[in-house]
Amino acid sequence: MDNIKNYVQENKDRFINELIELLKIPSVSADSAYSQDVINTADAVKASLEKAGCDFVEICETPGYPIVYAEKTIDKNLPTILVYGHYDVQPADPIELWTSPPFEPVIKKTELHPDGAIFARGACDDKGQMYMHVKALEYMVKNNTLPCNVKFMIEGEEEVGSPSLAWFVERNQEKLKNDVILISDTGMISNTQPSITTGLRGLSYVEVEVTGPNRDLHSGLYGGAVANPINILAKMIASLHDENNHITIPGFYDRVEELSREERDEMAKAPFSLDAYKKALDIEDVYGEATYTTNERNSIRPTLDVNGIWGGYTGEGAKTVIASKAFAKISMRLVPDQEWNEITELFTKHFESIAPKGVTVKVKPHHGGQAYVTPIDSIGYRAAASAYEESFGIKPIPVRSGGSIPIVALFEKELKSKTIMMGFGLDSDAIHSPNEHFGIFNYLKGIETIPLFYKYFTEMSK
Amino acid sequence: MDNIKNYVQENKDRFINELIELLKIPSVSADSAYSQDVINTADAVKASLEKAGCDFVEICETPGYPIVYAEKTIDKNLPTILVYGHYDVQPADPIELWTSPPFEPVIKKTELHPDGAIFARGACDDKGQMYMHVKALEYMVKNNTLPCNVKFMIEGEEEVGSPSLAWFVERNQEKLKNDVILISDTGMISNTQPSITTGLRGLSYVEVEVTGPNRDLHSGLYGGAVANPINILAKMIASLHDENNHITIPGFYDRVEELSREERDEMAKAPFSLDAYKKALDIEDVYGEATYTTNERNSIRPTLDVNGIWGGYTGEGAKTVIASKAFAKISMRLVPDQEWNEITELFTKHFESIAPKGVTVKVKPHHGGQAYVTPIDSIGYRAAASAYEESFGIKPIPVRSGGSIPIVALFEKELKSKTIMMGFGLDSDAIHSPNEHFGIFNYLKGIETIPLFYKYFTEMSK
């Protein structure tokens, strides 16, 4: 299947420029200031799918941001692949740490990306990886090599927990009917060692508010005599982990699937250098749950992290104040078989219970999702493995990712089909961080690999 | 001395309007955005002192904001009173909690101020209380009742720790020579029970920075595997107090003056209602160091409070990020005989020592000052007590304040004279908080009482 290689080579400049145009639109779903940009991005995605050769494309309104739906049907008797992706992006802040503006894409070479990488918010997560599928379809349609039917469902709320997607999927089960769901919103081990994500962590994301006195107070006149909401919040957060970095919320681990020694030994075979890991993050040592390795801590174990904290005077200089309120955003990554709604309830109950007299506590659930594990003996996984092996020349390794795509569990429940996660990004691509980027090599390799998945999946489904 | 009462009644509208004009200038010394306003305020204070009848007024440049110096000498053989105050104010934020703009003064009635109170940042701390002295001088000059010499030293950096004042005082000992220093920058128990502040707490103010990974990370891919600077900062802050709310910094209490049972019993006689205290702050219970009462916790005991904390994503919605850095502003209120520089060093050493591997810690000292206690058998204290008793018709009670005026200890060291703190504000005036205000009654009563201090101090000095 050299045609695709040639096609990519002939069109790569156009592929890159089209993606760059898409990346220029700041589709930050978490911040309502960007709502028009999010909607404009949906329109741009719709246009790209029409141009790629879909025979039906529509913008589907939802209670939140619209979902772009498209399909190309060649034969009702052939399998149907449903491609899922998202056109929204994470907020860009802290903006001052970007070496170039997050929505003015530029190509720069890096140690891991000698052919250059596109630097922009959303370059990898997920505009770049989503657009690989649009370009792969373009190739298959133009060259009459599309072996099966395809549907696209591209949403605009993934970075805020996909609040409208469940609503949409429940109402469109017939329309979304498929034989396998294909997502590129994860990573792979390296450009020389592809991997397929077989597991995702679940998520429970909450915001907490601790209120002490009814107004900010002078820390001299009241200091030492009233509960300081910031000190109390710090104390409450600190108490959520014990000395072994186990999470102290009662019942938190009750449903956690414990992997066998064999499974853990299998995982341990994935190439990993702790020194390189520490060097890349510029840290003296790693930190986490006792008796687990770094790769276990960020994949098969649940976690609790504060994602943001604020309270009191944070401006220039000094203000001797005791704040009336302190806030934190806290997220928990979950593993099979934790129930995210149950975990949110356990957290809320526990957090309220540890608040001392003198403060009141509010816990506001943001969103969440279930963890997911996909079997490696399915047609979908085997087709993906063959596709990677052919385009990279080496067998991919199955890995569990620490990230969350909450809707994968939803798809299985509502659409009764398995999801295959063919990711082409690298952990070092700084998704959710300043200077997010996506390697040109990875982008083009993805476009090359996807048609192979279509081919093998159709053959193996016969 | 009814003339002063009459004079205040005849001129009270003008006194109020002049203060309102002064309060309109946002002289926030902590925020360089207001630097021109701070300087303009110095000019306004200079003009008011000239108008009040000083025979020499000047703006003294310093490494920071200028100091307004003035004097009125009637006889070298008579005592000299040095009046200290400050024309800078605290930042106004959180601005959204003000019921009227902080720099657009308005008069509103409150439960404790039935005659109305002026609402504005700096109304009480310290523009209003400083201006009482200007108006009292105006009265004494106009009516030829000034019994002694007076000097004014009004600075513009008190809210940021008076960094330039020591520099100024050391260089102007002869010019500042005096027999007593008079300050109105504290409060009193109530409008029916005046009190004189005989003690002030010291201060050590620091800013801490905790750095983990060299960039913000995706909390799914790295969560659980690296030290999260916010969780670590929370843990470090929490560890600074033990289960009895004692501060855990080694050596912190070594120099703390322990009061005798008798002294504590004497203190306990000051009228205080815990229920009213809790009701005013809308809290279910107080919180503080075991075995000490509320009034002891906020006056004779040292404290450690976080005044501000920030890190990670604090915007709208959710961002699943592990921040690279987390910050906090922390202040410690000190009591005799703690050395503030030593405490800053002890804190820094301890805070760095409790940082786990995987993060680095920076501690930046902001400013500080010594605690202070003034004897109640001095001429200055007795003159102040007589002045309050005459104008309020009731003996004032000596109290220790939890606040800090670091320069009081400096004055004693450099100028070899005692400081008398004649405060007229109330704890409920919300200084350093949104909706700061100063009672019209208190403002006028202060103008009435100050000339009595001049009279008694001169007589008792004979």
TrEMBL record, chains A, B:
GO terms for biological process: proteolysis. The keyword Hydrolase applies. Gene3D superfamilies: 3.30.70.360, Zn peptidases. One of its GO terms (molecular function) is peptidase activity. Residues 199-358 form the Peptidase M20 dimerisation domain. Keywords: Hydrolase, Metal-binding, Protease. InterPro entries: Bact_exopeptidase_dim_dom, Cyt/Met_Dipeptidase, Peptidase_M20, Peptidase_M20_dimer. This is Dipeptidase. It comes from Flavobacterium cerinum.
